[in-house]
Amino acid sequence: MSRSMPVPSSAVSRRMARTRGKDNPRERELRSALHRQGLRFRIHYAIPGTKRSIDIAFTKWRLAVFCDGCFWHGCPIHATTPKTNQEWWKDKIATNKARDLDTDSRLTSAGWQVLRIWEHVTVDDAIALIRSQLQQISAREPARAQRANER
């Protein structure tokens, strides 16, 4: 991010600091629904070589699920740019998107499947996407799925 651009006002900075990056209500709602359906996973699973983590990690199947906020991650449908300090915000969102791409690349190189779910996707639809991805992985790797089911 360019350091020459003005930073947000103190009110905006306070609001940004209060925005939960982990365990936000949307993420907790999705995790609870997945758990109620019998799916087990790790949360905030560390990505080696970075300070980043996977929101919901199905480690046995190497499926990384990220719950992306429409504003913070630049949703192609719902992204908005604040009217104040537009250049700073455009740079901020672009940096977040570049970090997301780098994270996806690192995980894919390490043999993970990556699934990014926008906050506007319903919980039921998100669960269907996750189940579909897990089924696809299981179909490609039946031996791993069988070992996971035996545990």
Structure report:
This protein is of the alpha+beta class and 151 residues long. The chain has five helices and four strands, in the order ααβββαβαα. A hairpin with a 6-residue loop joins strand 1 (42-46) and strand 2 (53-58).
Question: Can you lay out the helices and strands and say which pair or pack?
Answer:
Blueprint: H1 10-18, H2 25-36, E1 42-46, E2 53-58, E3 63-68, H3 86-109, E4 113-118, H4 123-140, H5 142-150
Strand order of the largest sheet: 1-2-3-4
Low-confidence stretches: none
> What do the pLDDT scores average to?
86
Radius of gyration: 17 Å
CATH class call: Alpha Beta
The SS-based structural class is alpha+beta
General shape: globular
- The domain count comes to 1
